[in-house]
Amino acid sequence: MRNYTNRKEYLAKLLTYKDKDLIKVVSGLRRSGKSTLFELYRQTLVEMGVPASQIVFLNFEDFELRKFLNDLDGLYEHIIGTLDGSKPSYVFLDEIQNVNEFERLVDGLFVKPNIDVYITGSNAFLLSGELATLLSGRYIEISILPFSFKEYLTARDIDTSNKYLNYEALFFDYINETSLPKGVELREGGYDIIHEYLEAIYTTIVEKDITQRHQINDKRAFGNIVKFVASNIGNPLSPGNIAKTLKQDGQTTHNTTVEKYLEYLTASFVFYKVNRFDLKGKKQLATQEKYYLVDTGLLNVLTGKERTTDRGHILENIVYLELLRRGNKIWTGTARNTEVDFVCRTPKGDIEYYQVAWEMSNEKTVEREFGSLEKINDNYPKYLLTTDSFTQDRNGVKHLNVFNWLLENGYRTDI
Predict the structure, then answer these.
(1) With contact defined as beta carbons under 8 Å apart, do 369 and 392 qualify?
(2) CATH number, position 48
(3) Is the domain of 353 the same as that of 240?
(4) Alpha carbons 143 and 76: distance in angstroms, whole number
(5) What is the pLDDT of residues 244-286, one digit of tens each?
(6) Are 158 and 300 members of one domain?
(7) Of residues 166, 205, 167, 172, the one with CA closest to residue 191
(8) Comparing 92-96, 218-222, 363-367, which segment has the lowest mean pLDDT?
(9) Judgement on whether residues 109 and 204 belong to the same structural domain of the protein
(10) Which among 316, 184, 181 has a CA at the least distance from the CA of 170?
(11) Phi/psi of residue 214, nearest 5 degrees
């Protein structure tokens, strides 16, 4: 199994910003590969001739660094004392949110000449509040996601140039097991080991990043909200209708509590929220958002044996994550008589529309899926993605095989 060398898109992004006067912030779910990316980047720097003595690499989940978590001055001295200030230096601070008042440390290092600062965090709150204020306009965020379908196949050493590959079977492995790098490595040990691994990660996220941090006492309500959202991937949701559903099950949770819990889950990168976009008025709407899961393997942990999410919505989830990887800003499109899965603004500023369906099984499906895109009255590109091997364009709508689309070299490193 390859050692994650296929994270080259993220590596290329980091290299683009090397020595630029910006703090590099790598954010993403726990175990999605942030530390590995830093490790790869550190190796690359050494290969480029940077002396190892000019690189400081600290992971604040390491037990031996706990003495620094509340000792900012000691930590600052430790870092500065390791480096020769007259030469270019690279400082990597992994899981920095564990350090008390870390914003001051990051700022203190950033203003020193010759120091290039890189930080990671497993929580989006890292970039809200004080850090964002302090570093306004002085950082670049690189969001890391678990393996794409293409990276997953590479990690499994599958030759994608073989045109007889059964992509559907491989895709089911991908969505039913996990897309997390370490989880893919564990697959030889069997499904139960992957499941235990995902369970442990999810427990850590909930315990460390959510319930402790935000002092959530009603863990049952929180668990039920997670289960409900996971079972409703790709369906329009609102805190109000979630609260109403829970009430029918005999549990009273206020709308504002539901809203807060959803915010914590998206801040920990478990779910991604997609706002609705009014296709006619060309504006963002404030209600009925959709949620997608960072790794569909987590469905087995979140919804247990009642995994009911249909394969069409799971495919939609995978397409959403891929559009995100490719640097798009994404909405779900709505108008009075039509709805389209995704409206995207590409890194170049162009608009694209995407509709996703598992297969064109009958005439009714064909009419519904093509019709959604055909009703949009503009000349921007429109794509219908399905698993059908035989695809047929219609009225300017491009019908593509989703597996081919997922394996395209569609990444942009110039974001």
Answers:
(1) no
(2) 3.40.50.300
(3) yes
(4) 26
(5) 988 887 778 889 999 999 999 999 999 999 998 877 767 777 7
(6) yes
(7) 172
(8) 218-222
(9) no
(10) 184
(11) -105, 10
pLDDT of residue 161: 85
The pair of structure tokens assigned to 7 is 């994270």
* Rounded-to-integer distance, Cα 95 and Cα 121, Å: 5
Do 46 and 52 form a contact (C-beta atoms < 8 A)?
Answer: yes
Distance in angstroms (rounded) separating the CA atoms of residues 236 and 234:
7
- C-alpha closest to that of 35 among 200, 181, 207: 181
Q: Are residues 118 and 252 in the same domain?
A: no
Among 157, 166, 91, 97, CA closest to 130: 97
Count of other CB atoms within 10 angstroms of residue 29: 23
**Residues 286-319: pLDDT tens digits?**
778 999 999 999 999 998 755 656 899 999 999 9
pTM: 0.92
Task: Report the largest interatomic distance among the alpha carbons of the chain, rounded to a whole angstrom.
Answer: 70
Does residue 359 lie in a domain region?
yes
| Same domain as 361, residue 265 | yes
Query: Which tokens is 245 given?
Result: 């559903």
Looking at the fold, whether 131 and 203 belong to one and the same domain comes out as no
| Distance in angstroms (rounded) separating the CA atoms of residues 26 and 118 | 8
Rounded Cα gap, residues 404 and 126, in angstroms: 36
**By residue range, what is the domain housing residue 91?**
8-143
- pLDDT tens-digit series, residues 229-240: 999 999 999 999
Strand 338-345, strand 329-335: pairing? antiparallel
As for how many domains the chain has, the answer is: 2
DSSP class of residue 237?
A: B
The per-residue pLDDT for 208 is 81
Quote the CA–CA distance of 133 and 277 in Å, as a whole number: 29
Q: Angle at CA 368, nearest 5°, toward 364 and 369? A: 120
**DSSP assigned state of 66:** G
